[in-house]
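Section 5.1 Outputs to date
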Amino acid sequence: MAARLTSKDLLDRCDGFPYADRQPERYARKLDSLFTLVWEDEEGVYPIGYMLKSVFDELKKVPLAIRGDIVFDPFANTVKMFHKPATEKKRTELAAATTHYLRLNQTFKILKGWRNEMWPIYGRNGDILFSMERAAVALFGCMRYGIHLIAYVQCSTAPHGIKMWVPKRSQIKTSWPGMLDNTVAGGLTTRETPFDCVMREADEEASLPQHLVRDHAKLAGLVKYIYMVDTRTGGEEGYVYPECQWVYDLELPDDVIPEPNDGEVESFMLCTVDEVKEQLATGRWKPNCAVITLDFFVRMGILTRKNEPYFDDIERRLRRKLPFPGPHEDEE
């Protein structure tokens, strides 16, 4: 029988990138195994992503006319690319040409999850440097933004007085098929606001009434972590996912039942807190959704310092300071 997962185990599965202050040797080894994608402005050079060296090796093989110039500093282990065009639009076109070439040549498994959704790559001061197909962002290790909404109902007879709507991901999804998830979740496309994303995903994934979401979904805060990819994401291991999620709570009336809409969700279950705890302990939840659920339990007073030995770890690690610029900095 597999060992039951603690809250720390769940945190480790999601927030797996070493900390410079707490794990300096592991952190140094990890950075040495990566190249840092950098950008340069009038203030100097700064990082925007962590790239596997194997990705860099393949990028060098892309014809220069397609990918544009690559500037590599072997002493600093830094890579600069897509920087020559003067406008965001032209830089986006250059990134698109490069990633399309990699996709057509089947260079990376992760690109089999191509979604035709453009995600923003941010520079300093809130500037969007360029946009990129969401599946390809993994190759460059840049910031990823999304929303997660947890819907629940009041239930006086249930443990802790609530039940939670828990979806099971479709078995045909390229990433985490069949795993449990938060009620609604999705990535922010370029220039989409978090709440606009909530409205879109609540309809697409759960068929929730728009007026109900608009009037009652409440922003609970941001969750930030750095995930280290394994093969269950649908691609190669080792990609770095620095992520920021805007987290929302939504209390639903008893007669509103989420229903699958776009095929990404197989079914919804109304679960007690104890049932969700058991699912978490047995590893049935997608890693980032698991820790966002822990955060919900803290917010609802279900997990406290008295009953959760890793309470402080939950608080600290889900508010991680991230190494790259973007709109999450406005909340730090």
